[in-house]
TrEMBL record:
Keywords: Cytoplasm, Membrane, Transferase, Transmembrane, Transmembrane helix. GO terms for cellular component: cytoplasm; membrane. It comes from Poecilia latipinna (sailfin molly). One of its GO terms (molecular function) is L-threonylcarbamoyladenylate synthase. This is Threonylcarbamoyl-AMP synthase.
């Protein structure tokens, strides 16, 4: 704001104070910093995050336009027509966000949102009439600077004083209490703002605000596309696959719109083939139907995009014709309304009805349908970091890419036929995203397929429809395609062990690769490529429909088929140990099989560990042997000092009080070995706990570990990594290293800390001295502080 304040105040109609290129680069840097840092605030204040991401998009689009102007890609005379559509969208969006801030009584966010909204409005007025001047714009940015300085200084004071100083208006209400059930609604508003932005850009030519869609509008459209890809990722993190699929779809539209506007730089009028938009409309229709389970408002809103795709199919010049632009005008109005409702419901305890529950009520009346419980099986962890499935979007991308390349180019310039953005963005970029999500989910074959197909669509799209094919057709292209065919052959073979659907899916893609090969060597039979592409598109659509249906309904299920071949022989069909989510009490109870002599991997307040119940000596010996840690003795963990009550008279009072003060924490205490250890039932396994002279004992600051210890009693613990290897910081690593040697793994994703516990030498604590074998998560100063406080209370007779 200070940057724009200085530029607005010091510029004249003839010359800008800051050169356009420099101003644009600075705005881009600021936008990137805001977007990067706000990701840490998503769990604290939803409205704050929404506002900052919206402003980040504004600076990003504005900066890119200024760079194009500065580099003379866009003439200076088109500055007005380039800026007004984007500024108009953000004027309305920020006003709506400011209104929501008013309802929840958040004055700082209210002033920031309304001031920047007014600044955009005044900038539009100044662009429309030079006599208006830019003083009003500068005044609004001055107000933003002052409020942001107050807010930032207040937050700094709040942090430095550890919450003792709270300047009014600097603490968000949502920070004063823990928010539960955080969902994708945190980022939904930002996605709606991006729909509002693109609709504004396309509707402005229809109402005469700008002459036509041009290169100057590309920054706004592609900014919307990039931010919606970001919203897609955040929705996957929130495990909302329907919203992620929707924003994946809409991001494709934004990139295609920007691509069409970019072609105007080369005086190319793009032609939109009919099959693709029709198929896109069908996919949007299916998505809209299933989105009704969230709310009727979501389903109805997505129907506008069904109408938009139909309008693209009905008019050959697509985004440049009145029908398409008219539907975008309707989307602009609908997006503004849904943005207000979504933002208001996100922050207010009073909700505007959106039709939630009607879909569920209808399904319950149909005896043959059973909805899948949201918290039962849908997000049970696989062996991965993520709990979200991206297969709906991945299969839909293949549908779109397949039907896009059925368009006949003939003798026309490939760039004039609107295929490149659909093939490269839908088949390529989005599939690579889906592949990464599937990989994080632990689905190796699926992720490999999505990534391989994404690369193939990208290479083929750029080569065949990017104007390069006539120069490269021949042996070189054929060799590359054969390489992809070899990879896909391996996938096809692997798919026979997964299910029928994936086998047919991989096999039909192999047929497409054969058509690419035949085309490269000039031996393609007439109609073969279109035929196999349509078959692959239909198979992909079946998989898309099956996954979105099966993720919604418990029964019936659209069949995907059984594996064509079941593994047999050595290791075939061998059971895997249960890997269950650590945050469920039922999962911890399941892992309590340790009471029967089992061993398991478990998350803690530091790194993952391998544990066995102390009252099962056979399990302790098994854990010691399987860990292969003959030179690394095991330690003992308890849930609280109360578990030492039967041997309290055998331990030092100072030691017990030090334990009470220091635990639960990441502090391990090495104490003298003695007869007190016999009470825990270790038997012959006691020799594996500690050394002949001492034993390490700890009470972890971890609810999962504490609950498990309460169920099975004190446990013997060793690190989950074989001797000499790095600490195990994810349940994936536990399973990979010890999966066949344990009876279960409690899965909790990445460890909260990658540093081991601090090991304190308490063998001579009676002399008033402690030492350190290892300084880990808890620093020496903190341990000494706790110990000195305990000693002082002892010396004063307070204990």
């Amino acid at each position: 704001s200070l940057l724009l304040l200085v530029n607005s105040y010091a510029s004249t109609p003839e010359k800008d104070f800051i050169p356009h290129t420099a101003l644009g680069i600075l705005l881009l840097i600021i936008a990137a910093l805001i977007a990067y840092t706000v990701r840490h605030s998503l769990s604290h204040s939803r409205l704050f995050s929404t506002l900052c991401l919206t402003i980040s998009a504004l600076w990003c689009g504005l900066g890119l336009v200024y760079i194009l102007i500065g580099q003379r890609v866009v003439p200076f005379t088109e500055l007005k027509s380039s800026l007004i559509p984007g500024l108009a969208a953000f004027t309305l969006a920020l006003f709506i966000i400011g209104t929501a801030a008013l309802f929840v009584k958040t004055p700082v966010l209210l002033v920031i949102a309304i001031s920047i909204s007014l600044a955009c409005a005044h900038q539009i007025a100044a662009l429309s009439d030079s006599d208006f001047g830019q003083s009003a714009t500068a005044a609004n940015y001055l107000l933003v600077c002052l409020v942001c300085a107050y807010f930032g200084f207040g937050r700094l004071l709040y942090t430095i004083t550890q919450g003792k100083v709270k300047p009014p208006g600097t603490i968000m209400k949502s920070e004063l209490k823990t928010e539960q059930n955080q969902s994708c609604s945190d980022v939904m508003s930002v996605g709606l703002v991006m729909n509002l932005l693109s609709a504004s850009v396309l509707a402005c030519p229809l109402v005469g605000v700008v002459p036509q869609l041009s290169v100057g509008h590309v920054p706004w459209l592609w900014t919307a596309g990039v931010f919606q890809l970001g919203m897609c990722v955040l929705c996957y993190r929130a495990m909302d696959t329907l919203a992620a699929t929707f924003y994946g779809f809409t991001s494709l539209l934004k990139f295609a719109e920007g691509y069409s506007a970019l072609l105007s730089l080369y005086s190319i009028q793009p032609f939109s083939p009919v099959p693709f938009p029709v198929v896109f409309a069908v996919l949007f229709s299916v998505l809209a139907l299933f989105s009704c389970q969230k709310s009727l408002l979501d389903g109805l809103y997505q129907l506008f995009f069904v109408a938009y795709c139909i309008s693209i199919a009905a008019q050959p010049q697509g985004f440049f014709q009145g029908g398409t632009q008219g539907v975008q005008g309707a989307i602009f109005v609908a997006s503004a309304g849904v943005l207000f409702v979504t933002t208001f419901n996100m922050v207010s305890s009073t909700k505007i009805p959106t039709g939630q529950g009607h879909f569920q009520a209808l399904v319950t009346r149909i005896s043959s349908l059973t909805l899948r419980a949201l918290d039962k099986d849908r997000h049970t962890p696989h062996l991965g970091y993520s709990k979200a499935d991206a297969e709906e979007l991945g299969h839909a991308c293949n549908v779109l890419a397949a039907f896009a390349i059925t368009a006949t180019i003939g003798d026309r310039n490939p760039l004039t036929v609107l295929v490149l953005p659909w093939a490269v963005m839908a088949g390529g970029v989005l599939q690579l995203l889906c592949g990464s999500v599937a990989f994080a989910r632990g689905k190796t074959l699926e992720s490999t397929a999505f990534i391989l197909y994404g690369l193939m669509w990208t290479v083929w799209g750029l080569t065949r429809f990017g104007g390069l094919y006539s120069e490269t057709r021949g042996f070189n292209v054929a060799v590359g395609i054969i390489s992809f065919m070899m990879f896909n052959l391996l996938l096809t073979i692997a798919a026979i062990f997964l299910n029928v659907a994936w086998f047919v899916y991989a096999f039909t893609f192999q047929l497409i690769l054969i058509s690419f090969l035949l085309d490269a060597i000039g031996a393609l039979p007439y109609g073969y490529d279109i035929g196999v592409t349509i078959i692959f598109g239909l198979v992909s659509f079946y998989c898309f429909l099956a996954h979105i249906f099966n993720n919604t309904f418990q029964s019936p299920q659209i069949p995907l088929g059984r594996p064509l071949v079941n593994l047999g022989g050595v290791g075939g069909g061998e059971g895997v140990c249960p890997h269950v989510p650590a945050r469920k009490a039922t999962s911890v109870q399941q892992i309590a099989i340790m009471k029967n002599g089992g061993i398991c991997g478990m998350p803690t307040d530091t790194v993952y560990v391998l544990v066995a119940a102390c009252n099962r000596p056979d399990a302790v010996i098994k854990a010691y042997v399987k860990k292969q840690a003959e030179d690394r003795p095991m330690s003992m963990w308890i849930s609280s000092v109360k578990q030492l009550e039967p041997v309290r008279h055998l331990l030092s009072p100072l030691l017990l009080d030090f334990m009470e003060a220091a635990w639960p924490s990441s502090i391990s205490m090495v104490i003298p070995r003695g007869p007190w250890l016999d009470i825990f039932g270790l038997g012959d396994a006691a020799k594996h706990i500690g050394t002949p002279q001492s034993i390490a004992i700890r009470s972890p600051d971890c609810a999962v570990a504490t609950h498990l210890i309460n169920l099975v009693g004190p446990i013997a613990v060793t690190s989950a990594n074989p001797t000499g290897e790095a600490d195990t910081t994810h349940h994936n690593q536990v399973y990979a290293k010890l999966g066949k040697k344990v009876e279960g793994v409690l899965c909790d994703g990445p460890s909260p800390e990658n540093i081991a516990s601090t090991v304190v030498d308490c063998t001579k604590i009676e002399t008033g001295q402690i030492g350190f074998f290892r300084v880990g998560l808890i620093p020496k100063s903190k341990v000494f502080q706790i110990f000195e406080e305990v000693k002082n209370r002892h010396s004063q007779g307070q204990i």
